[in-house]
Amino acid sequence: QVQLVESGGGLVQAGGSLRLSCAASAASGSISGINAMAWYRQTPGKQRELVAAMPDGGGTNYGDSVKGRFTASTDNAKNTVYLQMNSLKPEDTAVYYCYVVLRMAYGPSFGYWGQGTQVTVSS
């Protein structure tokens, strides 16, 4: 059974920084690596918005509202993905979700969602 656990959210003042983490865990040796990943965010009454995406072919795409401020990265050795958020603005306030496509040692790759973590930016 695979689990994705997010951490790093919280309350920060405008202009501050946070780093979100999303760690995958499963039975020992069952995860071979990360094929692709993405970060989304959602506020009440709105659709989930793509923040950053790192597809299987490489490279990273960012939403227009976060370009130049957010950086997504992966650590295959730790089966963990990150979202570094700098120069935060009140409009960045949302629940942030990771989505990770894991390469499994036994069976096909599969995508999993994190549980979400709240980020609140005060003005």
Describe the structure.
The protein is mainly β and 123 residues long. Helix content is 0%, strand content 57%. It contains no helices and 11 strands. Strands 2, 4, 5, 6, 9, 10 and 11 form a 7-stranded mixed sheet that branches. It starts with a strand and ends with a strand.
Brief characterization of the structure:
With 123 residues, the chain is mainly β.
For the termini, the CA-CA separation is 41 Å
Task: Compute the number of strand runs.
Answer: 11
Judging from the principal axes of the Cα atoms, what is the shape? elongated
- Quickly count the helices: 0
Q: What is the helical fraction, as a range of percent? A: under 10%
Strand content: over 45%
Structural class: mainly beta
List the helices and strands and how they pair.
Blueprint: E1 3-7, E2 10-13, E3 18-25, E4 31-42, E5 49-54, E6 61-62, E7 70-75, E8 80-85, E9 94-104, E10 110-113, E11 117-122
Parallel strand pairs: 2-11
Antiparallel strand pairs: 1-3, 3-8, 4-5, 4-9, 5-6, 7-8, 9-10, 9-11
